Amino acid sequence: MIKNEEFQDEIGDNHISLSAKNPVRDDAFDISEDEKIEKIKKDVESILITLGMDLTDDSLKGTPNRVAKMFVKEIFGGLNPAKKPKASTFDNNYKYGEMLVEKNIIVYSTCEHHLLPIIGRAHVAYISSGTVIGLSKMNRIVEYYAKRPQVQERLTMQIVQELQIALGTEDVACVIDAKHLCVNSRGISDIESSTVTSEFGGKFKDSVTRREFLDYIKLETKF
Fold first, then answer.
1. What is the chain's mean pLDDT, rounded?
2. pLDDT digit string (tens) for 163-193?
3. Where are the chain's structural domains?
4. Architecture of domain 87-218
5. Does 174 participate in catalysis according to the annotation?
6. Exposed e or buried b for every residue in 11-26, given b needs 16+ CB within 10 A?
7. Which of 45, 113, 143, 199 is flagged as catalytic?
8. Which of 197, 209, 200 is CA-nearest to residue 164?
9. pTM
10. Annotated binding-site ranges for Zn(2+)
11. Which of 17, 30, 48, 151 makes an SS bond possible with 53, Cβ 3.0 to 4.6 Å?
12. Binding region
């Protein structure tokens, strides 16, 4: 029988997601960002001191505060629903009915198992059912869901689901190809490997439409 701690390590080391939603507590926003920064600052100080670092050194004095601000305002800012981008949609007055693809959207996220970077590119597509969305909003949706502790499978699904809601259509697809530093820089330390995830909705479940999308993004992965 696997001990609970061993089971948790196995989940993290194998990058397994147990939830389709980010596991955020109900009281996550009961305190302000400034309060969170102060709490995290003290925690980072404790970690560095435990590691034996000299926080009186000029180079390290500001590190706890910098890390705390980075966590709250930058790399985990996508946890805050108040920062969710507004999806600017418009009527498809010019009746464009073919696939629209926004490819090579840069992804900077953080693995929730080791808090190490996930770096890659997202390729997103949709077929309008009467509504179109501003191109930059597609990038902002990717950025919003990436800026939180994540697993790549969940991130891929969240991007598609958000666009499906905004556009009022199931015909949305996303492929992400990314490197995980928890794989590349620790553990197996395989610097060459990357992870590819996909989510296909509506017409993109059809093999011909899916292949057209993959041809656009020049990804030689078989699905």
1. 90
2. 999 999 999 999 999 999 988 787 777 777 8
3. 32-74, 87-218
4. 2-Layer Sandwich (3.30)
5. no
6. eeeebebeeeebeeee
7. 113
8. 200
9. 0.88
10. 111, 114, 182
11. 48
12. 111, 114, 182
